[in-house]
Amino acid sequence: MNSSLQRWLRRLETRSPEARIELGLDRVRSVLERLPGGLPGCPVITVAGTNGKGSVVAMMESIARAAGLRTLAYSSPHLLDFRERIRSNGEWVEAGDLVAALDEVEDQRGRTELTYFEHVTLAALSLAARVRPDLLLLEVGLGGRLDAVNAVDADVAVITSIGLDHVDWLGPTRLSIGREKAGIARPGRPLIVGERRLPRGLLEVLRASRARLWLAGRDFRWRAEQGGGLRVSWGEQSISLPRPALAGPWQMANAACAVTALRQLPANSGPDEPHFAQGLENVALPGRLQRVSTRPEVWLDVAHNGAAARALARGLGPAAGRSTAVFGLLAGKDVRAIGRALDRCFDRWLVAPLGGDRDRSGESLAQSLRDIPVAGRVEAVESVPAALKQALQDSAPDDRVVVFGSFRTVAAAWPELHQPHGR
Predict the structure, then answer these.
(1) 64 to each of 44, 190, 234, how far by Cα in Å?
(2) Are 145 and 180 in contact (CB under 8 A)?
(3) Comparing C-alpha atoms, which of 291, 248, 298, 289 is closest to residue 398?
(4) Beta strand residue intervals within 2-120, DSSP E
(5) What is the pLDDT of residue 69?
(6) Reduced to 3 states, what is the DSSP secondary structure of residue 42?
(7) Residue 419 has what pLDDT?
(8) Which of 19, 247, 267, 308 is deepest in the core (most CB within 10 A)?
(9) Whole-number mean pLDDT of the chain?
């Protein structure tokens, strides 16, 4: 990574650690008004949701690029490299351009204090003003209503799913969480909701937003087709598409949300059916039920809450041989919900700390799993790389190893998978 960018990231982390959260829009809006160039003037699609946000953004980006549209996509967190967060036409933005954007935000913020996420979000918007894309895609960091990306009025808003996560910030119920996510909607503009099981009372909240609602199961539907395809329908209209290249049955729902959102773009400016197909076939996103090795199978997944763990259990299915979990989880996450969802999936759990300011010790995590109790044997290991190395050494060719629990868990395992001695 560029040394100037590394210095900038260290500076941001020192001034405001990435884990620090201060919800609110006043700071971001005040600095955004001072940035030269303003907003790019193109359609903006903002995506919120407990799970699936990154996948939907990646699918829309891939489809739009297939249609020849110039895109700028902003997602978080990154997996291996900070530059993953801001992509122009599907490619990481050059480090020098990122530094210039971070500098510009610093110059314009004056005495306004910004969190790490706010500063980076504003840098992404500064870059959008420079490159003038045809489509700007924004992924919410946390919640929606008070998230930094909501300083920009979305032309189309998407809520992928509503589950229990970040309850300290968003409230203890799916209704409270859904209400926060609904804050990205704008009156008279489309709001696509992929969650089919709405918590009681949320429909009234959505209607009160005065957005044009597109509700899964009511206004759009999807189903698997024989031969592996996907059919998405809107009333009497429907199209047949290939399944997205991202693994997991839940990606069909994400694809339906992505396609429905892009169909809301102004006529003659958005993708059409061939572009939908090409984009779904070509989409890529590391760490989402990603198989990186065979014999033994090694899977990576960033699942870090109960809903994502239940999806992971469905996506994995039965193993031919023994199955080992390499598991690390940040403090504050619901280990009981995750453990219960994956209780019967693993013969052994190797759990490890992740380090950093939200670390949870391996032994503490191991004891929480034993207290559930999960069916497999639970062992605390000193680190994720050590746990993965041990799992690979102990695995037969027909066995399976699954690395999951956090973006940090997958990132920590990555170097071990790419060692010359790895299988």
Answers:
(1) 13, 18, 20
(2) yes
(3) 298
(4) 44-48, 71-74, 86-88, 91-92
(5) 97
(6) coil
(7) 66
(8) 308
(9) 94
CB atoms within 10 A of CB 168: 8
Q: What is the pLDDT of residue 423?
A: 43
Site of tokens 């405001």: 16
Number of other CB atoms surrounding residue 263 within 10 Å? 20
Q: What are phi and psi of 36, to 5 degrees?
A: -65, 145
Cα separation, 59 vs 284, whole angstroms: 8
Cβ-contact 144, 58 below 8 angstroms: no
Overall fold of domain 290-417: Protein-Tyrosine Phosphatase; Chain A (3.90.190)
Q: What pLDDT was estimated at residue 421?
A: 47
| Cβ contact 365:351 at 8 Å | yes
297-301, strands of its sheet edge to edge: 290-293, 297-301, 400-404, 323-327, 348-351, 377-380
Question: For the chain, what is the largest distance between any 2 Cα atoms, rounded to a whole number of angstroms?
Answer: 59
Give me 382's structure tokens. 């000193």
* Spatial distance between the Cα atoms of 29 and 121, rounded to a whole number of angstroms: 11
Low-confidence ranges of the chain (pLDDT < 50): 421-423
**DSSP-assigned states of every residue in 101-118:** HHHHHHHHHTT----HHH
Residue extents of the structural domains in the chain: 3-282, 290-417
Place of tokens 């059409």: 272
What confidence score (pLDDT) does residue 356 get?
79
Question: Considering the domain 3-282 in this protein, what is its CATH number?
Answer: 3.40.1190.10
Q: Which residues contact 365 (CB under 8 A, 6 or more apart)?
A: 327, 328, 329, 335, 351, 353, 380
Reduce the DSSP state of residue 418 to 3 states and report it. coil
Fold identical between 3-282 and 290-417?
no
